[in-house]
Design brief:
By secondary structure, this protein is an all-alpha fold. It is built from eight helices and no strands. This is Caffeine-induced death protein Cid2.
């Protein structure tokens, strides 16, 4: 079985970020390729036949990590360095870039004029709540940068949860000594700079 490859980085542009469907799809596919299938990815690193077949191994159902068979540390390290961490870094790069787009002025916002017109109209509106108690309600259109900022905030929260769960599996199966995924990822980043 071949190792999964990390998701290739998309071409980053403001249009990529503002197309929230494409952004969400990229993050979803990247997570499903590596993180959501972490158990299968780690199982693929096992080489149970290297010691020969033990007939007694089928007598009892093994529920804990293939009966204590640990994954080769070199295979784990290679998986983390070549698949897991690059995938996480790619998603971090995308989220950081799009967060920058969300906090930058957006001169190309197609709804800018419409929002300005609605805002001017709403300032001039006279509301008689006795006649229509719901007329005071106004739901202004959200700028696409605000919508993008909310999406990035939510996706970063999802990313934290996914990475913590994935790292828990890596520690359990590979016996990694790093206490948390942030330290492990930062260590990998340092090794990449050298």
């Amino acid at each position: 079985m071949s190792q999964p490859s990390s998701t290739s980085a998309p071409v980053l542009s403001p249009q990529f970020c503002f197309n929230e469907t494409v952004l969400r799809d990229f993050l979803r596919i990247s997570r499903s390729t590596i993180d959501d299938s972490i158990t299968q990815n780690l199982n693929a690193l096992l080489n149970p036949a290297s010691k020969g077949f033990d007939p007694s191994s089928t007598a009892v159902r093994q529920t804990k990590s293939r009966g204590g068979v640990s994954i080769d540390p070199a295979a784990c390290r290679q998986f983390k360095d070549n698949v897991l961490f690059p995938s996480w870094q790619t998603r971090s790069d995308v989220l950081n870039y799009c967060a920058g787009v969300a906090t930058s002025p957006d001169p190309d916002d197609p709804d800018h004029v419409l929002r300005e017109t609605e805002s001017a109209r709403d300032r001039e509106r006279v509301v008689d709540e006795r006649l229509d108690p719901y007329s005071a309600r106004f739901f202004p259109r959200e700028a696409r940068t605000e919508s993008l900022a909310n999406l990035i905030r939510n996706q970063r929260t999802v990313e934290e949860i996914v990475r913590a769960r994935t790292w828990g599996m890596v520690i359990e199966r590979c016996g990694d000594s790093s206490t948390n995924w942030e330290d492990a990822l930062n260590g990998w980043r340092e090794r990449q700079r050298r």
